């Protein structure tokens, strides 16, 4: 399991890229961070596979939702040369409208559990991300479980 320092830095950068791409609407970068068979869970929202993930986050980007994500305490465990697990805590500010948005209360603080997989090309991706809220600000509306139109 050579190259652990490089792998640790790469996984840190993967998490940095997640926050940046999500917060700044870079859907191409965001989608590239995940494996084709990704499983993504945030509370009751469950997305299975790349197509569901792209559809949801594309709709999110069009919804006017603004956010800023910060993470800390990334703890990594390497399962093999191509698989790793991660645990971290995330702080999210969120709202809708034109910046600057009044108020500085966090929207949610959550625990995140990740499963990472290294591609054949040698770069790390999220194979699974599961988010569990620890603290929630109920004054800020959460995202819907789905952006699908109801008939």
Give the biggest sheet.
Answer: 6 strands, mixed
Look at the structure and give the mean pLDDT: 91
The CATH architecture assignment turns out to be Roll
Q: What would you call the structural class?
A: alpha+beta
Lateral strand order in the biggest sheet: 2-1-6-5-4-3
Strand percentage: 35-45%
Low-confidence stretches: none
Number of DSSP strand runs: 6
Kindly, what is the distance between the CA atoms of the first and last residues, rounded to a whole number of angstroms? 52 Å
Fraction of residues in H or I helices = 25-40%
What's the helix-strand series?
Answer: HHEEHEEEE
**CATH fold-type name:** Nuclear Transport Factor 2, Chain: A
Q: State the helix count.
A: 3
Q: Given the C-alpha coordinates, what overall shape results?
A: globular
In the CATH scheme, the class would be Alpha Beta
Count of discrete structural domains: 1
Please tell me how large the radius of gyration is: 16 Å
Protein model, in words:
A hairpin with a 5-residue loop joins strand 5 (108-118) and strand 6. The chain is globular, with a radius of gyration of 16 Å. The longest helix is centred in the first third of the chain and has 21 residues, at 4-24. The chain is an alpha+beta fold. The chain has a 6-stranded mixed sheet. It starts with a helix and ends in a 15-residue tail after the last strand. The chain has a single domain (4-136), classed as Nuclear Transport Factor 2, Chain: A, CATH 3.10.450. It is built from 3 helices and 6 strands.
